[in-house]
Amino acid sequence: MSYKIESKNLNLWYGDKQALKNINMGIPEKKITALIGPSGCGKSTFIRCLNRMNDLVDKAMVEGEVLYEGTNIYSKDIDVVEIRKKIGMVFQKPNPFPMSIYDNIAYGPRIHGLKNVDKIVERSLKDAALWEEVQDRLDKPALGLSGGQQQRLCIARTLAMRPDVILFDEPCSALDPISTAKIESLMDQLKEMYTQVIVTHNMQQAARVSDVTAFFLLGELIEVGETKNIFEKPKEKGTEDYITGRFG
Ligand code: ADP
Ligand code: MG
To answer: How far is the CA of 168 from the centre of ligand 1 (A)?
Structure first.
């Protein structure tokens, strides 16, 4: 299996509290990897290490490596902006900019001086399965969209930067079931083109959407494997207890 991203002996501390303990994990290319585990086990912390988003949101000390296509993104000479362009992130709460639908998508491409912004906007909205719903009101405020539409807009905004990895941190937990189903089917469509990682506390969601599942507990990676195996014949007792609902 070829890995797009790989963490090597990754440790992370918030002050003196260690939130990630020696995580060694590969993120397979053009698959969907789900991160599951009880609240506070380090899922968000880990996914944010995959594009150094934790530089922006956490005061944390990191040791170890995160290799993206073989390059350690934590080494000193790395252009973090470039990394975040290639490895985009979608958050729990949709966070469109307070501007028009069009400008939300065009924002990144304009900053990076990309050409054919109209085309990028259209293609990104189509790829995020939102075009049909918004093509007649591109100049309207993004904040007027429903929550589910806003989340697809945020995905479109990520796609506009032509990433090759998309990280989702609980992308559906603020959404209704219909919007959730739309995001899940969108992820399935995006599989051909992108490597995806999703944090979810919803085990049914992990089972539905992912190819590979990783179970975290108290900052440790307990078990990772094909989703079917993790849910049907986990090797570790901790995994089994969690997926059968014995704690969580
Ligand atoms: P999860 O996403 O699995 O719920 P997190 O990665 O958010 O877990 O948190 C892992 C642990 O690190 C928790 O104990 C949490 O309280 C702590 N933590 C998370 N973010 C920060 C932060 N910015 N500063 C200090 N502690 C944090
Ligand atoms: Mg979290």
So the answer is: 16
Residue 32 lies in a domain: yes
Q: Report yes or no on 248 lying in a domain.
A: no
Q: Which atom of ligand 1 is nearest to the CA of 15?
A: 25
CATH of the domain at 150: 3.40.50.300
Report if residue 163 sits inside a domain. Answer: yes
Which residues on neighbouring strands pair with residue 11, listed in sequence order?
A: 63
State the CB neighbour count (10 A cutoff) for residue 81. Answer: 9
25 lines ligand 1 (CB under 6 A): no
pLDDT attached to residue 248: 72
Number of domains present in the structure of the chain: 1
Determine the structural domain holding residue 119 and report its residue range. 3-243
Q: What is the 3-state secondary structure (H, E, C) of 123-162?
A: HHHHHCCCHHHHHHHCCCEHHHCCHHHHHHHHHHHHHCCC
CA 216 to ligand 2 centroid distance, Å: 11
pLDDT digits (tens, 9 = 90+) for 26-81: 999 999 999 999 999 999 999 999 999 999 988 899 999 999 999 999 999 999 99
Q: What mean pLDDT value characterizes the chain? A: 96
